[in-house]
Amino acid sequence: MTDVHIQTAILDMGRRARAAAHELVKLTSEQKNAILLAMADEIDAQQPAILEANAKDLEAAHEKGLTKAMIDRLTLDPKRLKAVADAVREVAALPDPVGEVLSAWTRPNGLRITKKRVPIGVIGIIFESRPNVTTDAASLCFKTGNATLLRGGSEAIHSNVALAAALQTGGERAGLPQDSVQLIPFTDRASVEHMARMDQFMDLIIPRGGKGLIEKVVATARMPVIKHYDGVCHIYVAPSADQDMAVKLILNSKTQKPGVCNALETVLVHESIAKEFYPKLATALREAKVEMRGDSTAVTYLGSDAKAATEEDWSTEYLDLILSLKTISSFSDAVSHINRYGSHHTDSIVTKDRAEAERFMHEVDSAVVLHNASTRFNDGGEFGFGAEIGISTDKLHARGPMGLAELCSYKYLIDGDGQTR
Amino acid sequence: MTDVHIQTAILDMGRRARAAAHELVKLTSEQKNAILLAMADEIDAQQPAILEANAKDLEAAHEKGLTKAMIDRLTLDPKRLKAVADAVREVAALPDPVGEVLSAWTRPNGLRITKKRVPIGVIGIIFESRPNVTTDAASLCFKTGNATLLRGGSEAIHSNVALAAALQTGGERAGLPQDSVQLIPFTDRASVEHMARMDQFMDLIIPRGGKGLIEKVVATARMPVIKHYDGVCHIYVAPSADQDMAVKLILNSKTQKPGVCNALETVLVHESIAKEFYPKLATALREAKVEMRGDSTAVTYLGSDAKAATEEDWSTEYLDLILSLKTISSFSDAVSHINRYGSHHTDSIVTKDRAEAERFMHEVDSAVVLHNASTRFNDGGEFGFGAEIGISTDKLHARGPMGLAELCSYKYLIDGDGQTR
What we know:
Two copies of one chain form a homodimer.
Chain A: H1 3-24, H2 29-45, H3 47-64, H4 68-74, H5 78-93, E1 101-106, E2 112-119, E3 122-127, H6 132-143, E4 147-151, H7 157-173, E5 181-183, H8 189-197, E6 204-208, H9 211-220, E7 233-237, H10 243-255, E8 264-270, H11 274-287, E9 291-294, H12 296-302, E10 307-308, E11 322-328, H13 331-341, E12 346-350, H14 354-363, E13 368-373, H15 380-383, E14 390-392, E15 400-402, E16 408-419
Helix pairs in contact in A: 1-8, 2-5, 2-7, 3-7, 5-6, 11-12
C-alpha cells in the first residue's frame, strides 16, 4: 500500500468512528455492560486463535533479537489471557460516569441549566508493545461511550489484530454499534501522523509509550493530546521530620516498583538534619542495593560508596535502583528545586509541622502532592478510581490519575419555555 | 531584529512568566483583588497616554485603509476607556474559584485525598484588533492566578502597549509579581509560532480571532489550545411545536445580534408542518429583512423572495441577516443533519413533546443544547458566570462558555501518616 492509500484508509476509519460515536450515545449503561461481558467471553472463546497470533509475534521478536524484558511484555499465555478478559469484566462492573449531573441551576429568567457528563466522542490510542493495551484502552473508552481507534506497535500486530477481532465479534453479538472499536492495521510511522492530523474525526489522542512516541504525537497532533510523561518525583525531608518514617517512605517510594513513573528519583534533605539523617538513610539504601548519587554534603555523610551527582542527575528519571540526594538550606529552596528540576508529577514532604506541609502542598506545582506518604500513591487504583488509563502530566482536562470520568466531556442542557434575549 | 533575536526574546519572556506563575500561587484572593483595583485605577490615571497611543493606531489604520467596522473596533475614547477600567473592577468583584475543594475523600488506608482547584500556570492569549482584549484577558487570567503572555495584532500595538503598561504599573504598586502580565511586542506571524512551540513555559494557548488565526495556532501549537471556532447553530421546529413560539425564537436567535457565534444560521422544519409554518415564518423574516435560502419545499412555501440553498449553505456561518431553511422528514434526520453540518456549538428544538426534547438534547453532539429557548443563551453572562473569556468549541477541559473556573486546573493533595504500598 502506498502512503496515500494508507492515509485514505485511516481517514475512512475515522469517518466511520465518528458515525459510531453518534450511535454509542444511545446505549444505556446496562447495554454497554452486557457488551463488555460479551467481549470478555469472546476473548476466552478465542483463546487458541489469540495465542496462535501471539506466537507469530513472539517468533518475529526472537528473530529481531528483542530484549528479554520486551519479549516478556509481549508474551500472552492462558493465564495472562484470562487476566485480560477478567480486566474487561472488571470494567463492566464499574459505575458508569456518563449521564451524571455535574451541576444544575435555574436562572432568573426561568431557564433551567443542567451540566451533564457525556462521552468525548472519538479517542485515538497509540501504544507500543503490550498487547493488553488493546483491550484495556478499548474497554475503558467504550464504557464511557467513546468510539476508539487503536494503533499498536509492529511487535504485537498479530496479537492486537486477534484481540480486536474478539472485541468486535463478541461486542457486536451483544449489540455493539459497528466501527465502535477499530484497530488501525498499519504500523509505519506515517500512520501515526495521519491519525494525529485527523481532527475532524478524532477528539482526543492518547499516546501510551516512551518519550519519543509522545514527542512525535505532540509535534504533529491537531487535536488535544493527553500526555503521560516522565515522573521525576521527590521526597523532601524537613527539619522536623519523623526520620524513621522518612527512611521508610523513601525506601518504599524508591524500591517497591522502581520502573514506574511514580517511583522516587530525588531526595532533598534540610541541612540542619543532614549529619544525623544521611547515615541512617545510607544504611537502609545500602541494604536495598540502591545506588546513591549526592551533592558534596550528602556524599560526605552517606559514605564512600555514594557517588557525586552531576547537574543532569537532578532531572533524570532513573526507573532503576538509583537515587539522587541533595542538601538544601531552606524550605523555599526545596520548593524551587522541585518546581525547576521535577516533572510536576508526584512530590512528597515528610514533616511534623502541619503549616509547613500545607505550604509545601500549595506551592509545589505538581499533579499530586503528599504529606507523610509514599509517592507510589499517585495511582488510579490507590485513589479508588477502579481503573485508570494512565497518569496525566498535563494540566488541562485531566491531571494525575486518569479514570473513567476523565474519559468524558460534558454538555449543557437548557430547558426553557420560549425565553429570548 | 532578526527572527533569532525575536525567538530568544519570546523564550525569555516565557521563562520569566513561568517564574511569575510560581509567585502568583502565593497571593490571597484579597491581594489579587487589590491588585486588580489598582490596575483599573491606573487605566483611569493613564487616560491621556492611552488615548494618545490609540490615536497613533487610528492614524495608521486610516493610512492602511481599514474598513469602518475595523476602525470602530480599534477606537478608544474616554467613555470606552472608562468601561475598560470598570470591566477590570468587575472581575475584582467576582468570587475567586482558586482553592475551591472539588472533592475530598478518605481511603481505607487512612490517606485523606483532596482535589483542589489551582491556577493553570502560564496562559498565552493571541488576539487580533480589539485593544480591550488586553485588559479583559489579562484580568481574567490574573484573577485565577495565572501568568499571561499577550500577543495582539499590529493594528492595535500602540494601544496594547499603553494598556499593558498601565496594568503593570498599577498592579506592581499593589504587589503584582514582576512579569505576571507581559505583552509580546512583536506582531509578525513568526512570533505566533515561537509562542506556540514554547510548551516548556506555556501551559495553554487561546487564540481569539478569525478562523485563519486559530488554524495557524492549531497547526503549530505543542501545548493545549482552546478554540473558539464558528457557530453554525440550528433550531429544529418539531411537529408539535408551538409555532408562534418557534417564530419568536427564530427571530430572536437570528436578528438580536447576527454577527456573533451563537446566532442562528439554519432552521430545520418537519415536513408535516411545512405548509402551515413556512408562510408564517416568512412573514416575520421578511419584516426583519432576513434573506431566506431554502430547499425546494421550503422555497415553495416561503414565497418567491426565497432563494435556493446550495450544499455549502448548510455549513455556512453567515454572521449576517441570512438564514438557511431545510425541510426534514424525521426526528433522526434532524439530529443527523445537525451532527453532520453543524459546528457542535448551540442547537435548539422547539416542541411540546418532552420526551422528544430530551432525546434531542441527548443525541445532538453540541456544547449547548436547548429546548424552547433562543440559541443566544450560550453565553457566560447568561449562564451567570460573571465573565467569560470565550465560548469553547472544544470538548476537552472547557466546552461552551468559558468562565473563571475554566481558567483553572486542579491538583490532588494527599495527607498521610506514614502510609506505604
